[in-house]
Amino acid sequence: MRARNSRLRTAAALTATVTCLTLTAACGSDGSAAKPATTLDLWARAGSAQSLQRLADAWNGTHETPKVKVTQIPESDYVTKFAAAAGAHKLPDLVGVDVVYMPQFVKQGLLTDLTERIGALPYAKALLPAHEELATRDGKTYGVPAGVDVSSLFWNKDLFKQAGLDPEKPPTSWAEIKADADAINKLGDGVSGYYYSGNSSGANAFTWLPLVWASGGSPLTPDGKPSLDTPQVKGALKLYSDLAKAGDMPNGYDGDTGTNFISSFQGGKIGIQLLGSFAVSQYVTQAPKLNFGVTGIPGEKGGQSSFAGGDIMGIPAGAKHADDAWKFMEYYLSEQVQVETVAKSGALPVRTDLVDNKYTSADPRVAANAKLLAVAKTPVSTVYNQLFNDPNGPFLAMLRKGVQGGDPDGAAAAAQKGFSAIVDSAH
User: Fold this and answer.
1) Distance (Å) of CA 251 to CA 53, 93, 163, 188, 205
2) C-alpha–C-alpha distance, residues 251 and 255, integer Å
3) How many Cα neighbours within 13 Å face the side chain of 424?
4) Stretch 7-11: mean pLDDT, rounded?
5) CA quadruple 378, 384, 385, 386: dihedral sign
6) CB neighbours of 182 closer than 8 A, spacing ≥ 6?
7) Strands, DSSP E only, in 190-334?
8) How confident is the model at residue 34 (pLDDT cuts 50, 70, 90)?
9) Longest C-alpha distance within the chain, in Å?
């Protein structure tokens, strides 16, 4: 996610006055006709730069011109830099936008309408649904998926076996999560049944929210209103609270800001943890003896859900080389690139019709994550940062009060008020 708490930045830049909102296709030019591009500048946030560079390398190796140059922007600077570039009419040709910020960028008019171009793609309906929902406003779509991570449940098969559990049967409900964690925790010797980064807003939005979705709830209504004072939210808080009270989590979990989000499970002493698809390749490389499985995040009584993270690629409003930029976007969305470049690297393809390929199928853990692409969700909000990422915001406060504080009902009610104040102030 790439730690999801890396998005902790102010919302001020997102609401800054941007003078490029109503500019025409000549935005930033001197009025003369645009010349063919020799280089396309693609901005990528640091967490996604490597994967987008891989796509650029594939293009550059098969195209003489234009070349695609990836410019890496620090996570904490991306939003402010984008707003400043828009105001100065110095936007790049292409941008890879963190999925959670896409609704705000679209609302501000910072991106080019790609509705007709996307609609003409023969595989348009196979583009990741969560990403396309985030890129769409008032019936118009402004981007296509550029990369994806999904959250999922990881379980340590060796610890399951040692605890007398079936190592091939992961938990499929909240009751099973609790029972399995209790059994594993009894092993002692530094082993804990469950782990979560108790002081990380971003990591928990990515992993905890699917518990609610899989149970039929949602933190936001379809029109972006808060929906937290519900049985599903209270129940998911109670699950974590019960795990904490039972001692199923190791000492220090409550202070973890995300530093140990990936390394905790990698150490082989955690039975169950909700993580991200990106962790599979790291564990395979860095902890080859770690015997683990991957499955969807279950709801209270079954079902599965996931958070669709990653990036959406768009063309800034007024870009001089929109046609060339679109050709690159079509190229990386092609079956050849999505399979032979993306999937071959161990990443997930961004088209649901390509998830069943020889590379993802080679590892059942990658395949399990790929299957979640069709059901993965992402909250759609123009104030996502204030709601979910702010370490002083209502989401993390809800987790602290509901889990560590042992008051799920009070936490949900307080979060409802906190979310409502933020959403109301944005309208």
Assistant:
1) 39, 48, 21, 13, 22
2) 9
3) 6
4) 40
5) negative
6) 193, 246, 248
7) 192-195, 270-276, 292-295, 297-299, 302-305, 308-314
8) low
9) 73
Which among 100, 136, 98, 101 has a CA at the least distance from the CA of 118? Answer: 136
What is the Cα–Cα distance from 254 to 419, expressed in whole angstroms? Answer: 23
Nearest to 4 by CA among 138, 139, 150, 181: 150
Q: Which residues sit opposite 97 in a β-bridge? A: 312
Distance set, CA 91 to CA 39, 61, 139, 318, 373 (Å): 14, 25, 25, 9, 31
Q: Are strands 94-98 and 308-314 parallel, antiparallel or unpaired?
A: antiparallel
Q: Is 42 helix (H, G, I), strand (E, B) or coil?
A: strand
Are the C-beta atoms of residues 311 and 52 closer than 8 Å to each other?
yes
Contact present, 233 and 177 (Cβ < 8 Å): no
Other Cβ atoms closer than 10 A to 143: 28
- For tokens 């001089």, name the residue: 320
Per-residue pLDDT, averaged over 403-410, amounts to: 96
Residue 37 CA to residue 34 CA, distance in Å, equals: 8
CB 360 within 8 A of CB 349: yes
The C-alpha atoms of residue 426 and residue 419 are separated, in whole angstroms, by 11
Single pTM value for the model? 0.90
CA distance 418 to 284: 41
Could you tell me if 234 and 300 are in contact, meaning their C-beta atoms sit under 8 angstroms apart? Answer: no
Q: What is the pLDDT of residues 198-227, one digit of tens each?
A: 999 999 999 999 999 999 999 999 999 999
- The alpha carbon of 218 is separated from its chain's Cα centroid by a whole number of angstroms, namely 16
Give CA 208 to chain center in angstroms. 12
Type of residue found at 6? S
The predicted pLDDT at position 420 comes to 97
Instruction: List Cα–Cα distances, 404 to 175, 190, 353, in angstroms.
Output: 19, 21, 42
